[in-house]
Design a protein that fits this description.
Structural class: alpha/beta
Largest sheet: 5 strands, mixed
Number of helices: 12
Shape: globular
Length: 420
């Protein structure tokens, strides 16, 4: 397993390498009592999650080099210094958990983790470590909390051009994901990292809100997960480095939870087509009064201007893009399919995308727009070659995965794309 270079200059350049995490036992460690804390709206059936996820990753393995978080972590943990750092940080600095053991619990926990072989330790850092004195009815079953959301590899780190932004997560239950990704990108891929938390303790960024539109443009969501301070960090960083740069910001509703990231209402399908939630573009319903702001950077100076919507902001930058509406044109169906990540497509290349089959009206809209509808099973079984199609949407069956609150883009962290 050799590292590739890190370089992502657009959302739609042909994908060459991607980072995934196969959902593990951690998603079975939720109950109706703790699923809201874990940022889920329901508990999942892992047997069906595995079936659906295998179709999803099977498509990606037929298209690009796929790296898996747990595999890389196992390799890194052979290094004593990395092992000690991850254990120490996980136990002493990311220890948000109820503790009812007597004595110096953290020291004993760290000692126990350090004694594990690298395979077991990688598994425990992801799946959690059980309290040996758990009583069966209290809430302190895990001394080290499971990373319930790790399958959403998009969020805790973002490849931005030739660096990786280690995201400062908005919820404690996800903070330790960033710790693991920082180790992966620094020590396995050997790439420079950046972090908004170093700019301000109040700055927050998450990958679902960050879209690398082009070499000089980011499109970013501002809401529950990425805040104004985090966006300020991005603007200040690029103002120091670039003579000219732009950040187009779309304000998002604070609730319900289906609007947590920009990629839940907007994704790039190709250089001139996007998938969008129509009320966001029309500023209707929950998006009434939500600002769209173009941040322009020129020779170190940062200016702000309000624009009508994302498409108007892109047109101002001389970029015309045609929207396809998730859920078609019926506002009720738009809401239903948006809830199950109907706009959350992942681009494999220009007008070559991957998404959930269950969003039938959205898939129909893509079909009408000239996208060939390819079944994931046929791709994985070798019956269909994606390279034979100029425009396609590869669809995989999903009933459990959408209930986790994300789609194909959420579950992928692209690390190498061709430059367009």
């Amino acid at each position: 397993m050799n590292p590739c270079e890190i370089n992502v200059t657009s959302e739609t350049g042909r994908l060459r390498a991607v980072l995934l995490h196969r959902p593990g036992v951690e998603i079975e460690r939720m109950t109706p009592l703790n699923c809201a804390h874990a940022l889920y709206s329901d508990i999942l059936d892992k047997m069906n999650v595995d079936i659906e996820y295998n179709r999803f990753r099977g498509v990606l393995e037929h298209w690009a080099q796929v790296y898996y978080v747990e595999d890389i972590l196992q390799e890194l943990l052979r290094d004593e210094k990395i092992r000690e750092h991850l254990v120490t940080e996980s136990v002493f600095n990311y220890g948000h958990r109820p503790i009812k053991l007597s004595g110096n619990t953290n020291d004993r926990l760290a000692e126990e983790l350090m004694s594990m072989d690298n395979t077991k330790l990688a598994r425990v850092l992801i799946q959690g470590y059980e309290n040996p004195q758990w009583e069966g009815i209290t809430d302190n079953r895990y001394l080290l909390e499971p990373l319930y959301n790790l399958l959403f590899t998009r969020d805790a780190s973002s490849a931005i051009y030739n660096r990786v932004l280690i995201n400062s997560m908005s919820f404690e239950v996800r903070e330790r994901e960033s710790l693991i990704y920082e180790a992966i990108f620094r020590h396995f891929f050997g790439v420079e990292t950046m972090n908004a938390a170093e700019y301000s303790a109040k700055a927050r960024t998450e990958g679902g809100d960050i879209h690398i539109a082009s070499p000089d443009l980011l499109v970013v969501g501002e809401g529950v997960r990425t805040n104004a301070k985090g966006i300020e960090y991005l603007a200040q960083s690029f103002a120091k480095e670039r003579e000219q740069f732009n950040i187009l910001v779309q304000e998002l509703p604070r609730e319900p939870e289906s609007f947590i990231h920009l990629d839940m209402v907007f994704t790039f399908l190709g250089k001139h087509q996007c998938m969008a939630f129509e009320p966001m573009l029309r500023k209707q319903g929950l998006f009434a009064g939500k600002d769209t702001t173009l941040i322009s950077i020129k020779n170190g100076k940062i200016t702000y201007r309000q624009v009508k919507d994302i498409l108007a902001g892109l047109r101002h930058l001389e970029w015309d893009i045609e929207p396809i509406y998730g859920g078609g044109y019926d506002p009720w169906i738009q809401l239903r399919e948006q809830w199950h990540s109907g706009a959350n497509f992942f681009s494999l290349g220009d007008n070559k995308v991957l998404g959930y089959r269950r969003n039938a009206y959205t898939i129909e809209a893509l079909d009408k727009a000239g996208f060939a509808v390819l079944q994931a099973k046929d791709i994985v079984d070798g019956k269909v070659n994606m390279d034979d199609y100029e425009k396609f949407v590869a669809v995989f069956p999903a009933s459990e995965l959408p209930r986790a609150g994300g789609g194909a883009r959420c579950m992928t962290m692209p690390i190498l794309r061709d430059c367009e």
